[in-house]
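Run log, item B.
One chain of 736 residues. Sequence copied directly from the ordering sheet:
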Amino acid sequence: MIDETTAGLLEAAGPQMYRRNSFRITGLPTSADRRTVRQRQQRITPALELGADVDLGHSLPVRLDDIRGAFDRMLGDPRRRLVDELFWLWDDDGDAGTGAGGGASTSSCPCPKTLHHDHDAAVRAHSAALDLEVENTALSGDRQRLDEVTQLWSNAARLWGQVLRRAVFWDHVRHRIAVLDDRQLDESVIDTLRDTLPTTLVKPLIELAAAASTPADRVRLALRARDWPLVPSNLVDDQLEEAAAPHYESLRATAKRASSQLDGGNWDGAADEVYDHALPALTTLEALVPYARHRRTASARNDVAVLLNNCATAASDALGPAANLNASKWFRTAAELATDPATQQTIKTNRDGLSEMMATFTQIKTQVDELVAAGRIHLARTLLLRVKSQLVQAGGPSGEIDRMLADLRVRPATYVPRRVGGGARALAWAVLLILGILFAGFVSGLFGDDGDSGSGSGSGAPPASGVAVVSAAEITDNSPVGSCIGQESDWKLGEREVPVVSCNDPHWGEVVAYVPLVDMESRYLTAKYPGIEQVVALSRFRCERALAEFRPDDTRVTVKYATPGEDAWDPSGPTLDEYTTCVAHRIDNGNMTAADRVSLDSPAFPTSVGMPTFAANIEFNAPVGSCVESKTDLATTTADLPIVPCTEVHWAEIVGYPVLYDEGDALAEADKWPGDKVVYAKARAACEDRTKGLSDDLRLHITYPAKDWWTSPDRPIYAMCAVSYVADNTFTGALR
């Protein structure tokens, strides 16, 4: 059974602990005797019942029931009154009390005045911090108030820690017990208070952290709770985990729904559940109860990783190479989430399997293309039929082989001169070799690949000199990355081949990546041709990011990029047809030195790319379908925003740059500035048109042009549209 002292502490614990304090509500000093309390009750309660305005000495919003409850606590069980005394100010005369008969006591408080001063300073700092937190739901976004509340929390923790460590504090409690003179108050009350006061003081931080609307606030408040004095960190961790129970339960329900969909063969639906609901829930948990400190969070992360791994393996088993884009993404996320070594190894094995499968199919396709080019279509068909037979026997997916067989029926044979030393016998041996590799690869039945590698050129070394294929119709037909281009003039946009030199010789640039432009993550980035402006923006973003992954913060080297034409976009075909070729070179266009070389064997460093969202020309901006990494005021900050692919953690997605006035309209209205209201209304209508069908928990961000854009109307005048969640939480995946 909980005693009244503990009950009073539990009742007080929470963000409203000072706002519900009976002395603060009634405006009475903590030393008020019972007669004084009754007199004030008899004076103000009837007035409030009649609806009269009563000056209580504060501006807190209180109801009649709050007043009645406050007087009940003060006149009821003395243990609850004592708790309220500890959590309010002692800065009255310090020696008024209540005697056995309820009158004023003449005994003086024996504690030093510095104790009252320090206690009241702790109360003021703590109550002010809680008032700010309760009145502002996202303090991390307000620098001035954040600095203020940070200082208040620091002062409150320091002062309460000092006060509770002083022996005279407990002497004061003994004095108040003696003054209140009630048989229900004895030394056991002090023992209870000594054990539970620190946890009562930290409980508001825990509740605030659990209810915070942004990850930054959850992290900030949870860290502050763990640093609270006199409370063991493991106890705070336990309480944070208890406060996070609704988030754990939400995650469990999501995993159950996803597992049900997966069991029914709907791996896409199961993965959508994970990206739409499970990952945001894990983001919330990570801010509140990080997996490095909480085994329950680590276990939850691992369960989601297993679920995504199962989605990827199910898709790969059923679809083969056609599952690569989704399966590789799911494997990648699963690998990031997995916390159990056995799970990590399983995911790695499966990813390696998919990589082997994709490499094998690339080899098959290359062999088929060479056979067709040599006029050996019957050998190509024989190869594919044998592969299909092996696949069917092994229970593997044959859809991709069927597609290649169908393609053979419509592809004309193209004669190329026979290479010296080549011939039908060599081709036959090549067929047998590729069959052996394929059979060995598929018997294992393992699938797994990153799917987002910058290079789509397959295996092998780049040519040391001669020519390199850098703009083939399909990404896999290009020469390997690492080819070096001797002069800038050799790099011609759209040319299928470029002359190359040995990288040991002086050279202008290096082919560092072939990067797909469409990742199918965003509804705004599809296989439909987006227009030249967005192709330029996409190519620039993908190539700058590819270079930054290998050379982070390097200001000496920049990148040029190819811009594929409209014929590369085929809404009905594989999305990998749309890609850009990235060439690194020195900013001054001088010959690249050994220090400038881009080491493609070094580990990649995923990073954001600084790009504008409201530049002079649309193509200079971050592309539609890319995402803003962290919360930003998009109305005022439009340059060097951290842009990432939407597959990575982000805050908002760029959804459009609608043109409001083309050059002709702007020129015609150069002297007729429509005004802010008209331009904003036009921008809002255009942005709302682009965001139809999105869920109601999303916020639309609109950046629109000011009057000075009409002074030089030689370019389209446009708006920028972006979307984030109302709660400003970061997440991975697309908006819905």
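Observations after the first pass:
- Residues 93-107, 411-459 have pLDDT under 50 and may be disordered.
- The first helix runs from residue 4 to 12.
Flagged for discussion on Thursday.
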